[in-house]
Amino acid sequence: MRKLTISIAALASASVFALAAPAMAQDVVPQAAAEEANSDIIVTAQRRQEKVTEVPISITVASQAQLERQQVNNLNDLNRVAPALEIQSAPAQNTGGGGSIRGIGTQSFSPGAVASVGVVVDQVSQGNANISDLFDVSRIEVLKGPQGTLFGLTTSAGVINITTNAPDPTQFSGRVRTELSDQGTAGSKYGQQVIQGVINVPVSTTSALRVSGMANLRQGVNRNATTGDWNDVNRYAVRGRYLWNVTDDLTFNLLGDWSKGSTENGGDFFTFLSNTAANTALLNSCGITPGEGNQNYCLGAANEFSSKFEGWGGSAQLEYDAGPLTLTSITAYRKNETSNTGGNIYRADSLASTLRSGATGTKIRLFTQEFRASSPSNSTFEYTVGAFYSNQKTVQQPERFTISVRLPNGIVIRPVDSLGALNEITDESLAVFGQGTLHATDSLRVILGGRYTGGRLSLDRTDAANGSKSFQILNVDRISWRTGLQYDINRSLMAYATASRGFKGGQIAVPTAPLLPYVVQPEVPMSYEAGMKATLFGGAVLDFSLFYSKIKNFQAQECVVNPVTAQLVCAQTNIDGVKTRGAEINLFGRISDRLSMNTGFIYTKATYPGGFIGNDATNIGGKQLAYSPRYKFTLSGEYEQPLTAGLNGFLAADTIWKSRIRYQNTSRAEETFRAHWTVGGRVGVRSEDERYSAGLFVRNLFNVHEPSLLQSNFGSGIGAIYGPQSFRQVGLQLDAKF
Burial, 208: exposed, middle or buried (Cβ in 10 Å; 0-12, 13-18, 19+)? Predict the structure, then answer.
């Protein structure tokens, strides 16, 4: 550890002299440059600017226009963008964003867990202090398969690579856009008001400031039947970016963001789908009718089980063109804080049993420092080498759990009363990496890259009941790598084949006190991919891939309900031998002058190892993994038609089809959701110069109640968590630019 600390100090000292810059060249190249020809969609999947058709990685790209058309306002909405990507929005479970790619992800309530799908914003890894809200975004790239060589620890399944709009020194501009809906109006099952704004101010001929912000106010999707009030779920955020082209060779980029949010009565949390006959009668008495799509709960206490969130972060980025090399330095810091009042987890005052949590809070602080040196893109041997350091500290306050049971004679007993524990988790790592591409011929390229990671994960735990302490350490020392071939069949068709060994750090699981913490081993996938990319219709990109991956020590969470106390108990564990294999095809870009489209289909056979016994003691070996649909289809498209001089009409569609989804490591049918379509769309008009637009939109037209989470034996019944994706929304969209 001493060597690691000395190396960290050396990196920090060197940063004083580092010459580097914006979020790479993408920050200084106007957005129009990436859109002047659809065949030249520019991505940064290999930490340099490249055409998407030249990158030997399966990628789904969503432009700003598509994100706004599909109303992608937060990470959870990214479900609709790529068939390979799933985002689970269950509260406190969406580690590092909660994403899974090709069936592989990390769903965990443990504060010591890290993600399998990394979230990277303007080159900065978000760790577990990730952003939630998406606004003023230029594009999003979904990179599939292990990306650890260039992106680091939390990318064993893939990366969500987000690029926001850069400041523009050439002009003053601004924009305001809104999405407005009201519960009960035009069939909308909840209300939501989204307001986003941006202003771009040139400071000089070589620098500019861009400030953007948003407010996302939602009423529902849950309703307190006792008071008749819909839950308020509100979020606010602002981002500032300052870009300065100091010289022709040196660029400085300073970024900062702040966000704040609150939820009432648990926000989007469990409601009852079914229960025993006796309990159903009790639930009916306070206004709850258990069933699919139930939005009601009943709490008499004001604002019980509510939470608040606040987070901020910033980065300083320098880029210097030193002739044969481009040198980059990125220094970043993030901080997130959440607090929860605690309350009745069942959210049903009428039940004889109550599972109650106490007030608690969590703080996450993340510091990262990265240095890179990159060769010119037109060299025979292109390469990127660098070093990366991260230090993430999580402090989780004790959370009391109590179970109370009201007996028929009126006496209340408390079979469980745990005061919880204070958990302090430090995750520190240092890595060196490099990846190169050798142009063996004009058509053939050879890829080779590797990353060495050394780190230390530690947990200090103090039992709130008796003050006893425990300490756990997990040291890591691993190499991940990537190799492959890439061949240009002709000017518009490229093929590739790669092999990658990924790596995701271990966990120190923190079960409910007085149970002691334990180590969950690092996750190591061995993955193979072959694919082709083609340019069609003069500009659209076709991306086809075949993939296979076997994961050693897949990190999973197994949740069961204690039949005596009815307490939900979740344990983190390793499952060795999980496999995912299949095929995917994506088509995105502009099909014609009037039609743009992003569509894709994936077949993913992601399975438990043979003989694996699930939480219900049944053999589910070879069955589909939890949270992973075997088939998924996505379609987003817009057709534009001139109506009058200066005015165009548009019609957009947004459709998803998923096969049956399993939500727990069991064979219970009640913990799955059927195959289903989710259909949405938009119709409206916009000015020919796109300065103004107005439209009507609908999401989940047929009101299909796909849950975020299903849990059997919840309060002697079945519980579901529903989010905004689970109900119909109808509203008005307005947009103005100046």
Answer: buried
